[in-house]
Amino acid sequence: MRQEDRLGAILALLADHGSVGVVETAERLGTSQATIRRDLQALEEQGLVKRTHGGAVPAGVLYELPMRYRGARQQEEKSRIAELAAGLIDESAATVGLCGGTTTSEVARFLGMRGGLKIVTNALNIAAELALRPAIDLVVTGGTVRTESYELIGPVAERALEGFNLDASFLGVGGVSATAGVTTHHEVEAQTNRAMILQSARVIVVADGTKVGRRAFARIAEAALVSDLVTDPSADPAELDALRELGVRIHLAD
Closest Cα to residue 106, out of 73, 77, 135, 82? Predict the structure, then answer.
């Protein structure tokens, strides 16, 4: 396992359990205790953890993993979800919006391979990916950079998005449920994402099964504004039924 993947796994364990031990983490990740100690030192130097005797605790509350450490989580599921989601865009769609996130980044790769689209994004990593695709007509909003998600957010981004009409948009979320709607971890990011989906004729949420039924801090929109949810079979069936009752089309990536 690469160090970046180990660091992401350690942060995920911290987010789930509140602390990690060197011995248990080394066994779980199949590596040496010395390697885990070096990983914890690297995370401490980045201000993400505080080392303790025999392990570590978060330096703050880990509501959200930094983007650079999230890519390895549920990677196979995210790739299947992204491929299915990209396939929902037919020839009638000319303009597509992409918010930031690990799964939407995968969607961008699939869309980039087909070309013939005008894509609007507020995500710097997606823009960098699509800038190399000459068949894509790329539009990037301005805004303030949010380092955790590589997104451009805030009033500048929102004003730019309000000037576009989109046939469809893809939204990555921190959580999606029938009662809480679609949510994320940051209130300004939520407002910027809402600005994009309000300009979209079709809103496609991409979320692995761990996000279904979960709610994050800031609400982007009510679930009824979502046209489609693309997820995997691990999603809570009762929650999916509740979303269907609101008119959300459910697509499962096997």
Answer: 82
